Amino acid sequence: MLTTLLVHARRPVAPVPSFFILTAASTLLYALTFTVNLVYMVTVVGLDPLQMVLVGTVLEVTCFLFEIPTGIVADLHSRRLSILIGLVLIGCAFLLQGMVPTFAAMLAVQLIWGVGYTFTSGATEAWITDEQGAEEMAPVFTRAQQISLGATFAGTVAAGLLGIVDIRTPMVLSGAGFLLLAGWLVLTMPEDHFHPVPRHERDSFEAMGRSFVGGLALVRRRAVVRSLFLISLIAGLASEAFDRLWTVRILKDFALPTLFGSHEPVVWFAVFSLVGTLVSLLASLAVNRISPARVSALHPRRLLALLSAVQTAGIVGLALSGNLWLALAALWVKGAAEAVAIPIQAAWLNRNVESHVRATVLSMNGQANAIGQVVGGPPLGLLGNRTSVRTTLLASAVVTVPITLIFARMKPARVEAS
Predict the structure, then answer these.
(1) Which residues are CB-neighbours of 119 under 8 A, at least 6 positions away?
(2) Of 120, 294, 322, 367, which has the fewest CB atoms closer than 10 Å, so is most exposed?
(3) What keywords does the record list, in alphabetical order (predicted)?
């Protein structure tokens, strides 16, 4: 009975609504944790800049080691099963994070949630692309991004309110919520268009090797995919330090005023996240309304080059500004550009990847980003300890400059994959 439920939905929901529900629920639950977890690590666990980056590096090393194996599992066995396993592991990780406030526990959390994330990374996009059809994915991914931003807004409000009572509560509820989401998907998530490797072949290392070699061959054959992989690598080099240290920059370099009679940083960071989410949502809606053709273009290099340049400028603004609100404005602009770019880039990559290796190739792309974070994170974290967080952020901005140039120089693919 359990085996059947893990493979086949008992009461299936249509793929696109199911994908939107998964997106909304998981994003809301992530927001519960991510609104408070960095503040929690600084103010409760007491991590310094290098420890903050090392925590992230453990996560990225885990992603590096597990992205391709879990992607191959999704291609050989079931994207649905891979997603379910991932959600359960993520739920367990966030429960541990909220319950044990030590540096060692934070490292263990990154290991568990990193493995869980790799089971969902690539598999989710590959699942919905197979179920819906690659040619229809640009508007689906864009709508999902907008739903995600709305869910982030709701989750951030909830995290701020719950964090006032106890900063650990949002993380514990997030962990429990992921377990409940996995249970709901067991009953409702369809998988009708995925064709697994025959049972007598799927457990062999040879089959896994074929899937890996097939994915690698596609990456080498398609110039667009190679370029997008290089962009993921460079983005990873810069992102680990930025993602971990922007919170430190705000907490250490600016005095937060009283809000609603409270001096709690968690309240302010919930507000910062809310405003950033609203700005990103409005930017996404505006771009899709003003220029839908550019968003759905088969080769959106100019738009992505512009959005990349805006992200770099946002990091510079956050690093150099001596005013809290100007620094936050730069942060929000950077986030808005990223929110617009993510679904466009995801749809572009999916169009150029064949179905039978899609999850493997998408996991390889995630691994490229992880490699960048592993290589770039610790040196930038050490730079932050020896100089300043501001210097580290500026270094991160410099690293991202080639991304704009690569996007601008990319040439249209001769053949678009279905």
Answers:
(1) 66, 70, 73, 74, 82, 83, 85, 86, 89
(2) 322
(3) Membrane, Transmembrane, Transmembrane helix
